[in-house]
Amino acid sequence: MQSGSVTTPFGRRPMTLGQISSQMAAKAIKPDAVAHKWQVFQHIREARELIGATDRGLAILNALLTFHPETALTGDAELVVWPSNEQLMARANGMPPTTLRRHLAVLVDCGLIIRRDSPNGKRFARKGRGGEIEQAYGFDLSPIVARAEEFRDLALAVQTEKKAFRVAKERLTLVRRDIVKLIETGIEEHVPGNWGRVTQTYQQIVSRLPRSAPRQLVEDVWQQLHELYVEIRDVLELFVKNENPDANESHSGRHIQSSKPDSNFESETSFREDVEAGGNVAETDNVRSLPKRELPLGIVLDACPGVRELTTGGEIRQWRDFLAAAELARPMLGISPSAWREAREVLGEQHAAITLAAIYQRAEQINNAGGYLRKLTDRARDGKFSTWPMIMALLRAKLDAQKSVDTDAPHPSDPVDGVGGMRISEALLKTLRKPRA
Predict the structure, then answer these.
(1) Which segment of 78-87, 262-271, 292-301 scores lowest on mean pLDDT?
(2) pTM over cut 0.70
(3) In the 8-state DSSP scheme, what is residue 385?
(4) Are residues 31 and 140 both part of a single domain?
């Protein structure tokens, strides 16, 4: 081991107090101290950011360690290695000379190696007659032995921090998933509550997270989300406890009928004239007089002109355009994806889109569009709902509105009449003008 006094670097390289401290620590190594160089190097690599080393610097340190023949470095051994720059560059994967010199200085500043410069700055070793090394000039690896325990503790601290960060991110992911799922449950099961505001609160909290967030921020966001999660969970659990067991038919998907009138997620409500708009096939006489064929797109658009505003230029020329407009109307009405999926499965895509367009047309009269769509879907599943009566009811309402403002409306016996300028048959007009029961 090099045991001389404090040495200074060759040439214009400055001397620092940190270098003096490293040399003092090297001289204080006990002769029986032992450090396995690759194990210590692993600790240094894990604690690189705390130590202040660079990735290129570690590549050079790895190369320097290979020039010492022993794996176990001891306090009483010669720990100076003297490779040339060419040898170091070769073992450091062809690192350029300027890069090599710059990162060697970083290793010295970090206290990972000590320069033992010769009078002329060359690196070499002077050996005695017996082959033993009497004097060596180069890079002293004694800090690897002197600071082995320190590097181990730093590596342990880094590992602990990484584990804590990983656990914090896992907890954050879980609470985000739980909140989203519980909000969806509250909406789909029609639990009373302002779920729109809850969703907005959740999004505001999550928006605080940047792409790469420190652990403290992750834990702060988790704490806020956990408090929100507890509130949502308590609401749902209380609702389950207070729910009428007779209304919960083995979780069959039936909806709650007793929600607050001012809630944004009320239980199922209908149009003001439910039978007229809903179209109960068994109870409405008009149904039997309607033609047994598909609804023409023109009649549907005249009954539900509101969907035109959802398309570019207000043009819907074919059913494909109509279905696309219905897809845009669904989120605007607050209808959940599951309710829309169920409606399409039961009614078919075209009739489900017609039903949604009718709901959109009279959205101001419906407190909960999603619940109403589910209700119509259940009726269609039982064979008690058809889109014909719903569209006819909208057309009839449109005719009635026109009659109230237009005193010069054509006589019912006129062979040509229409709704909004569209020509329709006399039989259909008679059906529309038939007095309601």
Answers:
(1) 262-271
(2) no
(3) B
(4) yes
